[in-house]
Write a structure and sequence with these properties.
- By secondary structure, the protein is an alpha+beta fold.
- Among the domains are: about 60 residues, Herpes Virus-1; about 80 residues, Ubiquitin-like (UB roll).
- The chain has a 5-stranded mixed sheet with strand order 2-1-5-3-4, with helices on one face.
- Helix 3 packs antiparallel against helix 4.
- About 0% of the residues have low confidence.
- GO terms for molecular function: zinc ion binding.
Amino acid sequence: LLSVCRSCLVKYLEENNTCPTCRIVIHQSHPLQYIGHDRTMQDIVYKLVPGLQEAEMKKQRDFYHKLGMEVPGDIKGETCSTKQHLDSHRNGETKPDENSNKETSEEKQEEDNDYHRSDEQVSICLECNSSKLRGLKRKWIRCSAQATVLHLKKFIAKKLNLSSFNELDILCNEEILGKDHTLKFVVVTRWRFKKAPLLLHYRPKMDLL
């Protein structure tokens, strides 16, 4: 398992399809779709490097502003909580009072009960393009833009009573999507100039030799 800077890895995979360390082939034609985000390692790096998280959030906000798109809710929320955390330490507030803990707990509970309804939403049409699987009764869904392709695989597997979500491939424009891709990423990179809903196809997983 390799943990490296995503930007460096993406640049490397533009010219190669192998692991930069062990040289094993990641994928013959779409290696970028088979790299995952290591959130634990990212959290450690943020804690070790002062100001890095704020700088990264600013870059992401600037990116969405440049495209004229709304900044996703999770980036707004993460930036806000980071700022509050830093401000409290700068002011010497190392021990929050009881009322603060109570308010934070209530806000967290309210946020948990939101089920991502406040996130940017994406409309999707899920079509089956294989005779080996049946179509969904309700193929039009609307969900958070932060949901991933893996979430869709689990949803389809549950609806079709499949033994495992790993039996599925999900495609956009006849291209297999990586399981860690968010729907926001899919829309921006593969459906940017097309009208909603985002059309995705699913089929039994094809093992590539």
